[in-house]
Amino acid sequence: MQSANAILAINSLDRYITTTTDIQTNIEADWLLAAPTTLNLISGNALVGATLYHVGDGFPLGVVTIVSVVGTVITINTPVTANSGGPIVLTQIFLVDNATQPRSNALVGQYRNLPPYCNNFTITSPGALIYGYIDKIVVSQIQVQYNIPTVCFGRNDTLVIEWTIGTTQNIQAITIPFGFYSPDDLAAAVQALITSSPTLGFLQMVVSFDIRDGYTFTSNNGTNFSFAGPDVLIDNAYTTSQINRVLKTYRLFGMNFENSEITAQSTQISFEFPNFLYTPYIDIYSDVLTNYQNVKDTNTSTAKPKGLIARVLLSGVGNPQYTTGSAALGTTPFVMTADLNSPKVIQWSRDVAVPSIDFQLRDCYGEFIPGDIERYPTEFQMTLLCIEG
C-alpha cells in the first residue's frame, strides 16, 4: 500500500526570500557643533531607527542612527564634528521587518547578481518549510537551467603555446574571453587572439575545426610548436591551480600529451575529441536533507564528499547529442529535466520539521560550478516527496 506523501517544491531562486526590506530615501538637514547630537530637519520625512549616511561637512563617521524626531528636531546617537555650513542632503536607510510576511527578492537578486550565489546557498523560512510526521524524503524530479559557459573565467580559458628558436625555449599564454562558443566560433576567436598577440603573431596561426579531427592549429610560417605540458609549466613557475586551468583548456580543445610532450611540429591536431561541455554532470549536495541518513553518501573521487542527494547527468535521457561546426552540447545554454528512474530515498526523523535547506552544486572536478563570476547562474527546480510515517 502506498504511503501518503506531500510535495515540497523547491526553486533555487527562493534563496532570495528576505525577511527585511531596505527603504532608501533622502532628507535635508543642517547642524551646529554647539548642539552636536541634534540635526535641524529642513525637508523630507525622518524616521526613528533609520540610519543616516553622509561623508564630510562634519557629519559623524560610522553608523549614525536617528534616536528621536520631535517636530523638526532630529536626535542622533553620534555627535557631529563641525558645523554643516548650510543645508545638507543625507541618505536615510530604513529596515522594515517582514518576518511574518517574507517577500521574494528574486528579480532584484538576479539583476544585481547578489549573493548567495547559485552554487552554494540556503533557503530559509520564518517557519518550517514543511510540517508532518515525515519518515522519508524522496527526490522525484529535477529541472536544471544549465548556464555554464563553454569557456569559464579562470577555469578553462588559458592556452599555453611553446616553441623553440635555436636553443631558446619560449612559451606564451593566451586568455580566451569567457562565454558560449560554437566549435567554429571558438576556432575563429583563438586564431584572432594568437594573430593579434605581439609574441605569437609571427606564427601566422590558422585554427580550424572539423568533425573528424577536432581542432587543427597550423603555423603558416612553418615554425614547430606544441602546447606546453605540466613539466614545462612547472619550470615556468606555474602553480598547481594555474596548471589545472591550462589542462582544463586543453580538454576543451582535445589536446593531450601527444600535442606537447611527444612532438613539436608546425601543425597540431586534437588527439582527443574536443569536449565543449564543461562538466558532464552536476552533483547536488545538502547536509540538512541527509543529516538523518544511517548510510552516508560517497563517490569514487579522493574527496569522498557526503550529503549527495542527486547526480544530474547533463546529456539527458534517450536523445543522442550531436556535434557539428555550429553546435555541440555545452556551446549554448539549455534546460533539461531529470526524471529520476531510481530516485534517492532519504531517511528523515519524524520529530524534526524541515526548517531550512542548504544546497551546494559541484562539477566533475569537485569544485563549485562556474557561473557566478560570469553572471550566468545555473538555477534549478526540484520536487521532493515527503512521506508520512
Tell me what the structure shows.
The chain is mainly β and about 400 residues long. The chain has three domains: about 20-95; about 110-150 and about 280-389, Jelly Rolls, CATH 2.60.120; about 160-270, no CATH class. The chain is about 10% helix and about 35% strand. Strands 3-4-7-6-5-8 form a six-stranded antiparallel beta barrel. Strands 1, 11, 20, 21 and 23 form a five-stranded antiparallel beta sheet that branches. A four-stranded antiparallel beta sheet has the order 10-22-18-19, with no helix packed on it. The model has no long low-confidence stretch (mean pLDDT about 90).
Question: How is this fold's topology laid out?
Answer:
Blueprint: E1 5-11, E2 17-18, E3 20-31, E4 38-43, E5 51-53, E6 64-70, E7 73-76, E8 88-97, E9 103-104, H1 106-112, E10 120-124, E11 134-146, E12 158-165, E13 168-175, H2 183-196, E14 205-210, E15 214-219, E16 225-227, H3 230-235, H4 240-253, E17 267-269, E18 281-285, E19 308-313, E20 334-339, E21 345-347, E22 356-362, E23 379-388
Antiparallel strand pairs: 1-23, 2-9, 3-4, 3-8, 4-7, 5-6, 5-8, 6-7, 10-22, 11-20, 11-21, 11-23, 12-13, 12-16, 14-15, 15-17, 18-19, 18-22
